[in-house]
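NAD-dependent epimerase/dehydratase family protein, Mangrovicoccus algicola. Tokens?
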Amino acid sequence: MTAGPVLVLGASGRVGRLLRGAWPAADLPPALFQSRSPGAGIGLTGPIGPGLLAALPGPPAAVLVLSGVTGGDEAALAENTRLALAGLDLGAAAAAPVVLLCSTAAVYAPGSADRPFRETDGMLPPGAYGRAKRAMEAAAADWAAAHPGGPAVLCLRLANVAGADMLGEAVRRARPEAPLRLDRLPGGGAPRRSYLSPMTLARAVCAIAAAPPRDGFGVVNLAEPGGETAMDALLAALAQQGHPVPWSWRDAAPGALASHALDLSRQADLWPGLATTGAGAAGLAADWLRAGGGCP
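Tokens:
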């Protein structure tokens, strides 16, 4: 049977807009992007549910669930679990071999480890968003246990997606009269984070679709190799590539998070040949700009 396209649910959000630009730029197998509302590159509209099945050209090679909520109170953030379960039900009904759920590095408690976070580390997220994603992962594990016939479920604990995180939003809002204000840590320099290029995310999804996991449920950190990237270095790289951003320093608040890094051992084991072009500030900036939807 010929594999169908990757089905991307909830593709109108920040990450979805970048992926719609990254997919053709990375010359990847076909994808079908879904959103509740029409838009550029959206091939399937309507809420996630049985009504989408009739519009599918056949079983998708994989389902990626981007649909989610990033802000609001605990009740609003609980929608992350409902949307994930709806994506899993749709994937099962569509006979997809694997459903990918977007989790977050925010499930790990800052300062709880003196090394990059591993998937086996305990999860004590201090923020409501991280707690909501932890609850989503637990619900997905229960769903997988109750559906031994598949699809496989893989939760992607995403690093900061370049162009789709809070820095990306601040870059797009920055103006000479209202420059971006970047935290300067007490020891000097800007916060450092594990980052993920939208191009690498798209390539990883296609790699998973080409060789779906056999385990019923799993989690994996997903980020660029090579360690963390400082936010001021990313701004400098954007400027060097023709997109200067007006910005200035401000003193970081007490207790500001200096570093948040992900261990990528499992990522390397799963996809040893995964092509990544976003390692380092220059690569991240180039991929951000190539993806188009995240241009400053």
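The chain has one domain: 6-291.
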